[in-house]
Amino acid sequence: MARTGRRPGATQTREEILRAAREQFAEFGYDGATIRGIARAAGVDPALVHHYFGAKEQVFVAAMRLPFNPAEKIPAIIAEHRDDPAEAIIRFFLGVWDAPETREPLLALIRSAAGHEDAAAVVQGFMNDVIVHRIAEEFGFAPLRAAMIGSQLFGLVLMRYVVGVEVVRTADAEQIVAIYAPAIRAVIEGGDA
Amino acid sequence: MARTGRRPGATQTREEILRAAREQFAEFGYDGATIRGIARAAGVDPALVHHYFGAKEQVFVAAMRLPFNPAEKIPAIIAEHRDDPAEAIIRFFLGVWDAPETREPLLALIRSAAGHEDAAAVVQGFMNDVIVHRIAEEFGFAPLRAAMIGSQLFGLVLMRYVVGVEVVRTADAEQIVAIYAPAIRAVIEGGDA
User: Which residues form the signal peptide (chains A, B) (predicted)?
Assistant: First the structure.
């Protein structure tokens, strides 16, 4: 029977690559890890890693089981809501985090970054390179300003899902959007830094 | 030789009470722990706990080695800068967190709340009762709005000190004040929720 490109064991190979990727990211950080090193640790050719996942960024997204690639999703939201991205960003963010199936892998990553310096280094590298710098450049933001939007969103994660402060945990998503969108807008539109 | 009120072993007794308090908070949460229970666990009279520390809130502040009591400090800052508390709050906050001796105990508490559900319950109880509700009431804020200011500040902690995203970690405090004060002001002044 002819197989259409999928080798037997492809699923295992993918899993083996992702396992190796998690190890390499933990050992060398996001910046230090390479496709070549991940391939070597998984015992496969670097071209196969690229074939399955793409660039290092996509390997990271798959390895950390992120529900989407923020480097693609966030610019798409901003582009779609050019007039007022703040409200769209916070609404999308709450949608992702309020749904248990997308929340769980993100929560695991945050908990691990808060508790372990290795994990913190991985998250910091990805956020700094991909989220802060790349997205900021694309939209002509100061990188610090992009990071401060991230800071507001991560604070919300801490209050609503990690620590679970009652008044935030039980609030309706739209109540949070109403209070927080103007704050995110203030960072986006502020012109003095 | 006459002693002036300090019994021998007072330091040990204080430490014993604080140790008992940490255990009681971890076991019963902030809401569930009582001065009576802490006293019993420390083998002392409840009046002695009150004599050394005051109310449960002050026992918590001492037990967690917080550098100050936020329930007293934050209202003082707001009262002192009635016209524009946002900038004063963020500048004070950065001062506390940028100094290693005040940062360390706070960082320990955050790390532990992020990684352990018991610790998260303790932090959530204190923040909900003392920071969110009491301060919000005092200044006529909606509690959710007070919590969203906390959310912005905790996000900053995550980005600058815990994960340490480079562009935030290395930023000058005044750069952060310039970007973040308008965002905090937007939450304070927004009238629609």
Answer: none
DSSP B190: -
- Find the distance separating the first CA and the last CA of chain B, reported in whole Å: 64
Phi-psi category of B108—alpha, beta or left, where left has phi over 0 and alpha has psi -120 to 50? alpha
Per-residue pLDDT for chain B (193 aa), expressed as one digit of tens each?
Answer: 445 555 558 889 999 999 999 999 988 989 899 999 999 999 999 999 999 999 999 999 999 989 889 888 988 998 999 888 999 999 999 999 999 999 998 888 888 887 788 888 888 889 888 888 888 888 888 999 999 999 999 999 989 998 889 999 999 999 999 999 999 999 988 854 4
At B151, list the tokens.
């959310």
CATH assignment of the domain containing B167: 1.10.357
B170 touches chain A (CB under 8 A): no
Of A111, A123, A180, the CB nearest to B148: A180
From B148, B151, B159, residue closest to A150, measured CB to CB: B159
Judged by CB atoms closer than 8 Å, whether chains meet at A133 and B167 is answered as yes
The domain that holds A50 is classified in CATH as 1.10.10.60
Are residues B132 and A165, on separate chains, in Cβ contact within 8 Å? yes
State which residue of chain A sits closest to B147, comparing Cα positions: A168
Our count of domains for chain A comes to 2
Closest residue on chain A to B155 (Cα): A155
Does the pLDDT at position A185 exceed 70?
yes
B171–chain A Cβ distance below 8 A for any pair: yes
CB B33 within 8 A of CB B55: no
Can you tell me the ipTM of this complex?
0.83
Integer angstrom CA distances of residue A31 from A57, A119, A190: 10, 13, 31
User: For residue A159, which residues of chain B lie inside 8 Å, CB to CB?
Assistant: 147-148, 150-151, 154
Q: Are both B168 and B183 inside the same structural domain?
A: yes
**Which tokens sit at A178?**
């109403």
pLDDT of residue A139: 82
- Nearest Cβ partner of B154 from A133, A155, A171? A155
